Amino acid sequence: MRGSHAVLGAAGLAGFLALWEAVPRLGFVEDDFLPPVSRVAGALGTEFTDETFWTALGDTLTGWAVGLLIAVTAGIVVGVVIAVVPYLREATASTIEFLRPIPSVALIPLAVLLYGTELRSVLLLVVYASFWQILIQTLYGVQDVDPVAEETARSYGLGTWARIRHVLWPTALPYVMTGVRLAAAVALILAVTAELVIGAPGLGQRIAVAQTSQAVPEMYALVVVTGLLGLLINVGARTVERRALAWHQSVRGAVAV
User: Fold this and answer.
1) Residues 6+ apart with CB under 8 A from 232
2) Could you tell me which of 111, 41, 80, 86 has the C-alpha nearest to residue 176?
3) Full DSSP string of 46-78
4) CA–CA distance, 106 with 57 (Å, rounded to integer)
5) How far is residue 71's CA from residue 130's CA, in Å, rounded to a whole number?
6) CA 200: distance to chain centroid?
């Protein structure tokens, strides 16, 4: 089954690349705006030999990784505290629902005012966008805790930290891992967006420079790199999720199938 999925995926990718190559060469779109994939591949090869490209890639990955780490840590801690402290969930519900829908890009002017084009501007946007993914999933996971298991743990004299470790955390972990997977993708999107709009060092800045200098093949090559990064991050997040939840029924069932 997995082999057939891989073959279909490869066939779909090959068809997409063939279409991309044919459209500008047949004159449906001017190649000044959409170069053939062969030209983009050549530009991509040139980027790989450029030391500044790897520096920009490292800047993007640094903003992504640091921002995601901060968001995951803060989201889990805040989510557990809100769930454990009595009445805190009700007291913070309206505030969460007010802040969560605010688009992170709306904070770009604030980030520029506070930190200019430094890495901290990228981190502000990445952390804000990713934090809500983790927090909401953690709250959902805590809500799913079996009340019978919670009362049984209390009856056996387990303290707060012991109940969190042995009852709350195993139940919430699948939700948390889903939040981490979603947050990883969101963090990359915001990191590149911040670099593109603010001008912070990274792949987004190189895309903006390529666009303004009319280096269209190089621009598309960099966009392809960001897409490949997103694919690798998604695959990596799913791998970590499967390993972290190897004991869980959903993962064991999927493996068995």
Assistant:
1) none
2) 80
3) HHHT-HHHHHHHHHHHHHHHHHHHHHHHHHHHH
4) 25
5) 6
6) 19
Q: pTM, whole model, 2 decimals?
A: 0.87
Placement of tokens 């603010």 in the chain: 198
Residues listed for the chain: 257
Tokens matching residue 86:
């009595």
Helix (H) or strand (E) holding 27: none
Backbone angles phi, psi at 176, to 5 degrees: -60, -40
The four Cα atoms 108, 63, 54, 16 give a dihedral, to 10 degrees, of -70
CA nearest to 171, candidates 72, 242, 245: 245
DSSP state of 33: T
Please list the pLDDT of the chain residue by residue as tens digits (257 residues): 555 666 777 788 888 888 888 888 888 888 788 888 889 999 999 999 989 999 999 999 999 999 999 999 999 999 989 888 878 888 888 888 888 888 888 899 999 888 888 889 999 999 999 999 999 999 988 888 777 777 787 787 777 788 778 788 888 889 999 999 999 999 999 999 999 999 889 999 999 999 999 889 999 999 999 999 999 999 999 888 888 887 766 554 444 43
Could you tell me if residue 128 is left (phi over 0), alpha (psi between -120 and 50 degrees) or otherwise beta?
Answer: alpha
Tokens of 96: 């969460």
Report yes or no: 230 and 208 within 8 Å, Cβ to Cβ.
no
